[in-house]
Structure formats: structure tokens, C-alpha cells
Amino acid sequence: MDKTLDVFISSKMLELATERDALFDLFASLKNEIFPIRAWIFEKSSYASSHSSREIYLEVLHNSRLYIGLFWNLYGEWTVDEFEHAKNWGIEQHIYVKNINPEHREKKLQIFLESETEVAGGISPSWFKTTEELLEKVRNSVKEWVLRIFYATRNISAVLHSKSKYIPYLPDILIGREQVVDQVEQFLKSNSHVVLYGSIGTGKTAIAATVSSRYLTAHKRKTVLWLTTGNENADIVLESLAIPFGLREKFSSLAMPNKVEELRKRLERSSTGLIVLDNVWDGQMLYTIQSAIPDSIALIATARHPFPLQETIEVNELQPDKAFEMLTHLVGSDIKLWDGSESDAAEELCQRLGYLPFGLEIAGKNMHENRTVPSELLEQYANSLHEMHADFAEPGRESMLALLIPSLSSVDEFARTTFMAFGALFQAKASTQLLALYLASTEKEIRKHLYTLQRYGLVKHLRQEKGLPEQWYILDLSFSYVSARTLDRQHISGIAAYVKRYQQTGSAELIPASARVDLEGALKAVAWATSTNHIKEVDYLEQALYKFMLWQGLYTQLIALLGYVAKTAEKSKNRQRQAQVWSKLGNVLMKLGKLDDAVRNCELAITVATEIGDLYLKANNLITLAHVYIIKSDYPKSMTACMEARKIATKIKDPETKVFALSAYGTTHSHLGNLKKALYYQKQCLTISKNNHLPLNQANSLNDIGKLYSHQNKKRIALSYFEKALALYTSIGAFDRRVGVIHNLGMTYTYENESQKGLDYLQEALTIYRERSDQDLICSALGDLGNAYYFMKNYQEAIRYLKEGLTIAENLGMRRLEANLLNTLGASYHELGDTKLGAEKVNKAISISREIGDEAREAMQLYTLGDLYFESNQFSKSLQPYQASYEIYVKLQAMKGIKDTEKQIERAKSKIPIKKRGAK
């Protein structure tokens, strides 16, 4: 995914040619590992085209992220045209004016500059005299711009809200915004798309939250889909909006138009009535997302630019009387202490704060807590202005941030440290647990400091559904303040806190699923460590996050994480680390069903492991490769990879690797239908594990042997192995592995006609999977419950579970599981007397298996289709699927399948009259 930041440089062609060329060279020398920067000026970057010059530059400008306008004395039609388009398209604009002989400036240009810098939320031009001064100013502003983009970029997740009180960022009070709220609500009645735009600190998000909360109160059966988009592009935002509907993994493999169409269809079927896109930076993203929103759903976007939606509402500063009302409301009963002069001071304070709610809230809460008066706060405020950082030169921004200093001075040192911790943790929100880890304190103590900060308006508690950990957030301006003051060593400590939060201690289950609330910050920490060459920290984070993210099924995010690790490994020329990353990518891609990509990554890892002589790494990648080939039904390649891994394991005397290789070899034989050979190799694994004191591998082997006996219909023997595996997993604390055995016990007891005991085990497994939010295993458990009810001839109940599982499989894009579920679903409909519908479902399963190249399952499903026709006395019709199944089994050399289909073909032929058998 391209994260390049394109910068469009505009000026009058001849007047500022020297400065324009110098800027182009400056951007060529600027480097940023996370966001590469690319500059464009017409003279150097334009290309041969049949289009007009205007069409060329507007196309480039449309795709740019930053517009830099250079002005001096001459008015340029094209330069102003570019400026106007940048403004309309919501592209950030930086304006630089050469301040030499301004008396010669054309009046038309002077009027243009004045009109653009006087409006609320307008542009503050930067003045320069020399080229060197211009370069320094641009270098600083671009550095600050990239920093803001970095912190605005997030690994985002949309949340579907059904209760008004849990809408995020809902303000305690909203004064002076009644007219805006009414206006937005009026637009929502016709499901309009509305953008609330204005400068930072005006309270756009608070207005959107208030409207959303009131919407849910008025529409009891509707939901609000809320997403803070930040700097992310349409691809990521579409995937994020799909998360609440279980579509994330399916989206990872879809092209953009398909994502738009799929999300639109899902939204049409949902209860969503309103979508809120908060803090929008990317206009192109917003236009794309609009096309995915059905006409029956309204949209609110908050942004700093007036993106041209159906309706645009500018959120300006408060009216002076409303600002005064808000300030005095926050001060509360202490207002009685003010004399007449203090009212004048309060009005001056409101004016100095730009009548912006952010600053007024901090000022009012400060006076309330400290029982001070406006004149005292004005004095503190004036003294703190000189302490402001150069990054906060934007008009109005430094005034509000200056208030943080007196407010922070009012709380104790520990509360101040807690406030500053957000900068070290890379994001404006964090859980109490994470803050406690960073500050090496207890959650109780941290919570006390956070409540102190909340009384001063410095932090806020994020309202959330029950069961989720406490989260706290600071506003964007505050986050800019703490970020600018965070040192590298503090960031390193923040990374250590994330490592502790996610560090594995033997079992993924020991980390609660609720730890996902801090994952956004952890991934930002990875990005920061990558960009600043803190390679050790990148490795620590990856080692801590990998198993958690794998367990949670966060495959798309995991691929992004491994991409960062690959980048640091390449920079440090660490070939072994590169091979390890390719190995992990191969594993993740296999789980996503991207089998060709998985093969490619495993082969890359094997090549490098061979070059550097890391036989252990080579063997493990050969085993992963074998499992990919098993899924692809390429059994000769699977066996070759297993045997090569086995030879390496013998050579390096590593019994565990040998067990993995033999187990994969046994699995291959199992897929070929040679259960006797499969059992032989799995028993070898068990012996090696026992002799070398490998209890986890021993338990795995017991479980695998149990499954093979179950396939041979030796259910009682299978049960004894499963129970031994369960006892061993429990004794060594491998609780996340236990659930798989519980699952297997459920199926085996069901087939042993102890149906209630079997169903109890299967329900227990499903409950555990639901608690872990492990979607693919939830889907698998639902499928097995469907299979169990099918075996018990309770076809209605079977269909209920199979349909629920099918919905998940379709949403996640899990094609193999989808085909399995359809196969049993078809058989269930057939048993209820609807052979036509049953055959339709089984045919769909066959199509999917054929599409993904899973020949073994295709053969099994063709066999099912033959059975459906045979059992409904359509003997001639059954011959074709039986024959097709037989041919695949011959190709795969699956002896059991060959024998079974041969038998069924003969049975079908025996039922067909001789004359009919010979007829076409």
C-alpha cells in the first residue's frame, strides 16, 4: 500500500523559479522511512501528454497531500487556480510570501492574500526574504506536518454503537452549539451527508458525538457506526468499517470496487442508521466511502477542511456571550467570589483563548479546582506563553496550549507524569493497565492521578461497553504538546510497556482479548522504532505481538507488522532475521488462504536459510511448506518437503523438529486415505516426544492419533487418546491447546451414540472460541455442531448451526470452510426431502473447492452429490459425480476414496435397467 506523501509546489513560473527549484532539491534530500516524500513542480515533473497543461497539473494536484504556494509581487492565474482547487479538495496548504519590496505587489494579489488569511480557520502565511530562510521554514513545517500525519495514522477499528451513553467523546456540556446540532439533525432526517469543518479546538467531535447520542435516543432500533479515520486511505477505512460486520479478512483479498460493493450490501442489511467519520484528513478517501453508503444511511464527517459533501457546516469559535457562559458554568458556584473587574478579566480571557471550547474548558476547570479568579489565570497564562514549543505556531493553537502549563502546575508531579505518558505511548488514548505498566505503578494509583487530571479537563474517561478495560484520552492539541516533549528514551520505555502488555508467558490465553484496545499504540510504536532505526525494539515488539495477533486472527495487521520487521532486517542486513520474517509471513498467508504467496515466502526463507547455513530455520520452513502443499492437495511435494526436513532434523539432532516433520508426513498420508501409514508416523512422533521429554509434542501426538482412530471408526480407542491428551495439556498449563481436544471429544462421543455428552463438549469448545473472539474456530465449531446434529438425524438443528457458521465463513472469506459447510447443509436439505435445494448447495461447495484448487475436498463433495441422487433414486444422474470423484481419487492416489467410489459406481449401475444404461 503506497504511503508516499506527494507535495505540489506552486508559484508564478519565472518570478520565483530559483526558490521553486531549491525547494524541489530540498524535498529530494528529505527522507522519512514511514512516509517517503515526493515533490512535484510543473517544469521538472510534467510528462508528455495529449492533455492540456491545466489538466496535467490538476490531475497531479488532485492526488497530492500537501500544497505549497510561493507568492511575491505578481498575480498568477494558474497559481491561484491551483490554490483554489487545493482548498476545495481538502488538501493541506502552506503559504510562503517573499517579503522584499512589498510596495510593488500587484493589488489583485494583495487582495487575494488578505481574503485568504482573514477568514476563520484560514491560512497563516509565512514570510521570508532569502532562499535559505525559505528552505529552513519549509524544512521545519514539513517535519511538523509529517509528525502530525504519523500520529494521525492509526490501525483503526470501527465500533457499532446501540446505546447513546457509550458514544465516544460525548461532552459533559455543550454550550453555544444548539443551532449547529439542530441544523445537523435536520439534515439527518433526509439521510444527508454532512461535514462539520473548522480549525482545531472548536469542538467538532463533541457536536458529532452529541448528535449521535441524541439519534440513538430517538431511534431505539438503529445503530451508529463510529470511526476515527485520521490519515488512513480508503482501503484501510473500508476494511475498518467492515470489522463490526465480520468482513475484515474477506476484504483483505478484494479489489477496491468489490470492497465498496460488499460493504454497501452489508450496510443495507444492517440496523445502521448513521455513520460518523471523525477527524477526516484524506478527501479522496471520503469520496470513496460515500459511494459505499446506501441512501438509507446518513453520514457525519468532521474535518479541518470543507470537503464538498451534500451539506457543509462551518464550526467557528463560540460567540463571546456563549464563551463567557461556558466559562462561568465550568467555574460553578465559585463565580460568586468574582467582583466586577473579574468579569472584565473573564471576558479578556475568553478573547485570548479565541472563544474556543478546548481552552475554555481547561481554564474553567482550573479556576474551579484552584478556586482562583480570571485575572490570576491571565497572569499565569501570560507567563507560560514564552515556554511554548516552536511547533505550535498556528494561530490560536499556542494560546490554548499555553493554558496546559498553569493547569499542569496545579497538579502534583505524579499526575503531571501520567499526563505526559501519553506522548511516550504514541497515541492520545491508553488503558489504565498500559499506563500502570509504563509508570511502574498500580492501576489504583494511576486511576487516582487520572481522575485528578480529569477534574482539570486535561484527560477524559472514554465511555465503553461493559467488559472492556478502562481507557482514557487527551485531546489532539494536548497530544501535540506531550509528543513534542517526549524524548527518545521515554519512547523506549513506552515500547517496554507494550512488550510487557503483550509478552507471551507460555499461553496466548493469559493475555485477555481486551488487550486489543492498546494494539493501535503498539503498532505505532513499531512504526516509530522502524523509522528511528531502533531495531532491537522492533524485534521485541514483534516477538511480543506475533502470537497474540495470530491468536486473535488479526492477519491483515500482522502482515503490516511483519513488513516493518522485514524493513529493519533489510536495513541491518540481518539475513537470518529476514528469513524468520518470511517464514512467519508464509504461516500467516497460509491461514489467509493465499497459498501461492505463502509458498513464495517459505521458499525465500528456505533459500536464505540455506545460504547462511541455518539448518533449523530451513527445516521449519520446509514443514510449513509441506502444510501449504497439503492444503493445495499437492501430496508429492508435501512428502518431499517433509522428508527433507526429517533428514535435517536427524543431522542437527533436534528431536522436536523431527516430530514436526514426521507429523506433517503422517498428515499427508491421512489426506491420501492411507490411515495405517499415517498412524505409524504419528506413533513414531509420540515415541520420540516421550523419550526426549517433550510434553507439549507428546500431547499433540496423542491428539493426532486419537483423530486417526476416529477416522477408522475405532471411537473407543480414539476417546482414550483424546482423554490422555486433555490430561497432559492441563498438567502442563497449555490451556489454549485443550480446547481442540475438547472439540474432538465432542465429535467422537456424538458418533459413539453418546450424543448429549458429545454436544456438551462441542458447546464448551464453542463457548471458549467465542470468548477468545477466534472467528475461524467459532466457524469450525459451528460446523461440527451441525455435523453432530446431522449424524443424530436432527436436520433442522443441523441447518441452524450450519447456516450460522456459513455466514461467518462467507464474511471472513474462508473458502474451504464455506465449502465444507455447504456440503453438509446440502445433505441436510436432502434428508428433509428437498433434494433440489440440497444438490444446489453441494454443487456450490464443489465450485468453491474447484476454484481454490482443493481437489481432495472436491472429490468428497462430488461423492456427496452422487449419494444425494442415488438416495433419491436418480441412479443415472448419480453416475457422473461418482465417476468425477473416482478420477480425482485416482489422481491423488487416495486408495480408500478409490475403493469407495468404485463400489458406489457399481451399485448405481446395478440399479439402472440395461437398455437405459446404454442410452445417451
- Secondary structure tally, helices: 44
Structural class: alpha/beta
Overall pLDDT metric: 85
Give the overall shape: elongated
Strand proportion, as a percent range, falls in 5-15%
Distance between the termini: 55 Å
Word description of this protein:
The chain is elongated, with a radius of gyration of 32 Å. The strands form three sheets. Strands 6-8-9-10-7-11 form a six-stranded mixed sheet, sandwiched between helices. It has a five-stranded parallel sheet with strand order 2-1-3-4-5, sandwiched between helices. A three-stranded antiparallel sheet has the order 12-14-13. 48% of the residues are buried. The protein has 44 helices and 14 strands. The longest helix has 22 residues, at 131-152. Helix content is 66%, strand content 8%. The chain has 920 residues and is an alpha/beta fold.
Kindly list the characteristics that best describe this protein.
920 residues; alpha/beta; 5-stranded parallel sheet; 44 helices; 66% helix
Write the layout of secondary structure elements.
Elements: E1 5-11, H1 17-29, E2 37-40, H2 42-45, H3 53-62, E3 66-71, H4 77-88, E4 92-98, H5 107-118, E5 126-128, H6 131-152, E6 159-161, H7 178-188, E7 193-197, H8 204-218, E8 223-230, H9 234-242, H10 248-251, H11 256-269, E9 272-280, H12 283-290, E10 298-303, E11 311-314, H13 320-331, H14 340-352, H15 357-370, H16 374-384, H17 397-402, H18 404-410, H19 413-424, E12 429-431, H20 432-439, H21 443-455, E13 460-462, E14 471-473, H22 476-484, H23 488-502, H24 519-531, H25 535-552, H26 555-571, H27 575-591, H28 595-612, H29 615-631, H30 635-652, H31 655-671, H32 675-691, H33 695-711, H34 715-732, H35 735-751, H36 755-772, H37 775-791, H38 795-812, H39 815-831, H40 835-852, H41 855-871, H42 875-892, H43 895-911, H44 914-918
Helix pairs in contact: 1-6, 3-4, 7-8, 9-11, 9-12, 13-14, 13-15, 14-16, 15-18, 19-21, 19-22, 20-21, 20-23, 23-24, 23-25, 24-25, 24-26, 25-26, 26-27, 27-28, 27-29, 28-29, 29-30, 29-31, 30-31, 31-32, 31-33, 32-33, 33-34, 34-35, 35-36, 35-37, 36-37, 37-38, 37-39, 38-39, 39-40, 39-41, 40-41, 41-42, ...
